[in-house]
Structures are given as structure tokens and as C-alpha cells.
Amino acid sequence: MQPQFNFFQHWYPLSPIEDLDSQRPTPVTILGLHLVIWKSQSSDKFCVFLDQCPHRLAPLSEGRIDEDTGNLMCSYHGWQFDKQGVCTRIPQADDPDLIGKNKSNLCATAFPSRQENDLLWFWADPQSVEQAEKTPLPLSPQIDASKGFVWSSMVRDLEYDWQILIENVADPSHVPFSHHGIQGDRQKARPIPLKISQSRVDLIEATTDVPFKTTITFEPPCRLEYTIAFGKEKQVGLITYCIPITPGKSRIVAQFSRNFAQSLNRFTPRWWEHIKIRNQVLDGDMILLHQQEYLLQQKQKKESWKTAYQLPTSADRLVIEFRQWFDKYCEGKLPWQEVGLSDRKTQINNNRKQILDRYHQHTQHCSSCRSALKNGQRLQIILLTYFILAVSAVALMPDAIRFKFGLPLIILALLGLFVAAWLRFWLQPRFYFVDYIHADR
Length: 441
Known about the structure:
Blueprint: E1 11-16, E2 26-30, E3 33-39, E4 46-50, E5 64-65, E6 72-73, E7 80-81, E8 87-89, H1 98-101, E9 110-111, E10 113-116, E11 119-123, H2 129-134, E12 150-158, H3 162-169, H4 175-178, E13 195-200, E14 203-208, E15 213-219, E16 223-230, E17 234-246, E18 249-258, H5 264-267, H6 270-299, H7 305-308, H8 317-330, H9 352-355, H10 358-361, H11 367-396, H12 399-427
Helix pairs in contact: 11-12
């Protein structure tokens, strides 16, 4: 009997549009599918292809955008493809009609894609294009500027599976403990009575009034959203898209919305929000969930999650509802076998620098953090160069003018040295790795 829920016939967001590079192809993996994102010079929309050239299966993500045609060129033999995936050039062709005669066999595999709510979306089944056109995107009603909402976005790859990510985001009671001092306070933890208001194959909804009136919506397979009301009008939203990458890895594409204090969005740099809050929140869960996933899989060799977990409080209600949904409609597993992957994590990774690797999980994907890191490195070189030149210049000054002109130069040089040290030892590491030790918080 086939599972009732088909993970491949749904829309998934790949990335915020602002983080994509229109000048070169970008690789990404979703549901075990290796994809390439690229943008034709003749289009204002990004395309999503399977990351393999039909010629000899070389990765198209290692290709380039041809300056003359604007098409995607494979770097192995120079085959080119337009935005529909149609092969437009084979440099080795000795028959001028070769492409026309074999058009259907020479195409790259193109997936349906759209751009909405500042995100690039793709449909994971290239064979069901008509169904994709009829299926609405799982958009959030809170990403709507006409209703006074402002928002920011973030993407990060995570070292644990999709089902563990869904559990984690669907569990508000962990926040005071996992995120103490960032988003919560362990001293103020209290019972959170969750009620399931709807539950069906395409939607689970839960509500609570503690500590604020909150609605939690899970629209499978990826949208998991919090709507938090303050009074009658003020509203904050946490919109997460939880995306399976490969066994033991997932991706979160998050949007953070509110309909008040709109001007703060203009004054807070996106990269600063990422290093000060968003990455720290994800770091706070990473070690816990990486190990939880392994231990749950070990227990599930002999027993169900129902006995592996102890879930006695109403705060666990949404986790229970999700697990029951997963069992009922997905047979308790993701479709890894359909793409030739094993679904088991073989061991725990105890290398904290790998598990909390901000650079490869986030910075390399985020245009704001990449730019801030690069600008910080450039500024550091400029300040150190100025320090060396200033000290050298003052040393060569005649004694009569050294105090008058040299002292200001040295003071500025020392201030620059201090800033360079701050950039080198405080700011830059936050784009790469910051250890998160709960016992120290």
C-alpha cells in the first residue's frame, strides 16, 4: 500500500530571492534531488533544473551563464540550455540538424518554479506540470505589505532530519530552556496548554492563550507558522518552511513578520540580526536535535515513538498530532528510497565545529552575511595598513612636529587597530562558528 502523502508533488521554497546570484549557477539539494538554480539573461525569473547535463551527467552547477546567448552552459563539453531546458547548442555536433532531430532526448530536466513572497519556489516532480500549475503555493498571509506587515528572512541547513525539525518548531515549550537569554527565560517557563483545532491530511492547527494568543499552523509538507497576537491589532509571525534535504539533514527557510514598529526593519542590518539572534537560536537546538535523532532511530528499531518518547503534558499535544499524521499518511518515513538513499543515521557526530558550522550552513547561502564578512575583511586590511603607514610616518617625522601632527595620527592608528582586532576576533568568527554550551548560559 502506497503512502497517501506524496512529498514530491508539493511546492517548496529553495531560498530567499535576495540571496540568489543571478550571474552564476547555484547548487542546492532538496528531497535527495541535486538541483541547480540559475537565471537566464533574457528572463527576470530564476530557473530550477536537475543538476546534471544529459550528455555525460556532469553537474550543471559547475557551469556558467554564456555571455552571448544568456543560456546555461555545461563546463564539460559546452552544451547549452535555455530556460525551458531545451538544448540550444552542441559544439561537437557534425550534423546541423542533430538538435532538432533529437530534441526531446537532449533536454535538461526543468522543474516548475515560481517567485512569490520574496522566495523562489520549486515543484519537486517534473512529470506533473499541470498539477503544479493548479496547486497554490503554501504562502503566509502575514507576508503582505498591504496589511502593514514588514519582514526579514533567513535560510540555514541543519544537521538533523526533517521530521525532527518539524517536531522542534511545533514545540513552543522548549524555548525558555533551549534559547535562554536569547528568546526565552528558563525562570519564567510555565505550562502551555495546546489545543488541536483542526487535523487532516493537508492541515494541522493548534491554539493556545499562553503566554499570548497564538495559532500554530502546519501545512504539510513544509509550512509551519506561528501567529502571535498582542492585543487586538499587533501581530508577530514566525513563518518557517521546513525542507527535507537528505537523511539526517534539513533546511529551514524562515520569514519573521510583524505589523508594528515597521521602521526598525530599515535600521537593523539583516546580517546583524542573523549573527545576534537567528543563528544563535538555531545553534541552541543543533546539538540537542542531532543526538536526539540518532537515539530515536536506535529506539525505533525495536519500538514505536509512542514508547520511545514520554509525552505526558498538553504542551506535547502538537508533537503527538504531527507524529500521528506522519504515521497515518506517510507510514512514518520520508521517501528516501525513491531517490536511492538509506534513511538511517549510522552514528553521532561529536565534532561541534562541524555541527555548528555557520559558514557552510548559512553564510555561504546568505548574501547579507557574505557581503558583511567580505567588507569586514577588507576593512581589517585597510586599518592594519593604515596603522603600519601611520607608525612609520610618525617615526620619520622631525622632532619639532612629531607631537603636533604625529600624536593625532597615532591615536587614530590605535583606534583603527582596536577596530581591526574587534573585526578579527569578535565579528568574523560569528560568520563561521560559535560554540553553544547550555551549561554556561
